[in-house]
């Protein structure tokens, strides 16, 4: 009996001293710096500290993220605001669980059209009849490029746009498959450093804005079934955003690792601004812009789409 009591006591002590298994969460983002806070939270052990086991996956096109959430291939993804709103408008029951990157002066300057050498494009009207690669139809850059064209008196239908993932942009410029790409982040530096393209219009900076670029989203079903995991994720992202604001080198290291880019190219890229908190005003800005472009069929209430932080 003494041996049994000792075994039971020892087993209880072992159970009490063994930490609970971290909850597994798969997070999907494209090869850009916009999900930098999740990258940092993985590399710096912030997710682990909050009891989460997060695995990040690169997604080729931003428009692939909502279907991946719906099919349970991902628990959380980083869609652009426009992709998220179009998915919700189309009937997908998604919610925003945390903020990621927002538009600001530096990234607005860095989101540009890169023109293939030998092609001249200086204004919106010069894009008429040209073939332009965009990183996902309905994605942030695509919508803002349309906004630029329309402000310049050009119907976007007059431009031949094709979906082109960030990693493939240097190749499609080099081979002449497109006349230009609408891009941002380290991809721009890769093209410029290769000597096959040059800077064209800074189409976002010309019009400005401070709305969210991307945020972290999940299905409503998953978020409601996992409120503790959502709260821990929000706390970790807020901590990573604070670290990113104070240490640029941490951002560079994590972005370079996830995107498989040279750190010097990431360093030469305008820094992203990360804000963990989401507001209905930011989503409202996108709703108005997309409605003007005829990209939404119904009425979307931003107040029902944000999971509040604890």
TrEMBL record:
Enumerate the subcellular locations listed in this protein's record, separating them with semicolons: Periplasm
Q: Where is the SsuA/THI5-like domain?
A: 39-247
Highest taxon of the lineage: Bacteria
Tell me the keywords, alphabetical order.
Answer: Signal
Checking Pfam families in the record gives: NMT1 (PF09084)
**Sorted alphabetically, which SUPFAM superfamilies does this protein's record hold?**
Periplasmic binding protein-like II (SSF53850)
Q: InterPro entries of this UniProt entry?
A: SsuA/THI5
Quote the protein name from its UniProt record. Answer: NitT/TauT family transport system substrate-binding protein
Q: What protein family does this chain belong to?
A: Belongs to the bacterial solute-binding protein SsuA/TauA family.
Q: Which residues form the signal peptide?
A: 1-22
* Cellular component terms (Gene Ontology): periplasmic space
């Amino acid at each position: 009996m003494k041996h049994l009591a000792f075994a039971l006591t020892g087993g209880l002590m072992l159970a009490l001293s063994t930490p609970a298994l971290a909850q597994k969460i798969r997070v999907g983002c494209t090869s850009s710096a916009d999900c930098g806070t999740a990258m940092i939270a993985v590399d710096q052990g912030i997710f682990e500290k909050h009891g989460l086991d997060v695995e990040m996956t690169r997604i080729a096109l931003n428009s692939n993220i909502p279907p991946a959430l719906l099919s349970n291939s991902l628990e959380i993804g980083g869609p652009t605001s426009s992709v998220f709103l179009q998915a919700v408008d189309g009937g997908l029951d998604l919610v925003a669980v945390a903020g990621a990157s927002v538009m600001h002066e530096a990234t607005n300057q860095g989101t540009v059209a890169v023109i293939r050498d030998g092609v001249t494009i200086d204004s919106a009207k010069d894009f008429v009849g040209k073939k332009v690669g965009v990183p996902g139809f309905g994605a942030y850059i695509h919508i803002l490029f349309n906004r630029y064209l329309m402000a310049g008196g050009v119907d976007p239908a007059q431009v031949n746009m094709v979906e082109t993932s960030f990693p493939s942009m240097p190749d499609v410029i080099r081979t002449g498959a497109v006349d230009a790409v609408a891009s941002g982040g380290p991809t721009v530096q890769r093209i410029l450093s290769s000597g096959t393209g040059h800077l064209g219009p800074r189409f976002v900076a010309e019009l400005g804005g401070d709305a969210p670029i991307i945020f972290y989203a999940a299905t409503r079903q998953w978020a409601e079934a996992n409120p503790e995991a959502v709260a821990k994720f929000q706390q970790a992202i807020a901590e990573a955003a604070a670290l990113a604001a104070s240490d640029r080198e941490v951002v560079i290291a994590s972005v370079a690792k996830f995107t498989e880019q040279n750190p010097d190219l990431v360093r030469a890229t305008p820094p992203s601004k990360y804000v963990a908190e989401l507001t209905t005003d930011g989503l409202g800005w996108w709703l108005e812009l997309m409605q003007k472009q005829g990209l939404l069929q119904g009425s979307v209430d931003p107040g029902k789409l944000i999971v509040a932080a604890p």
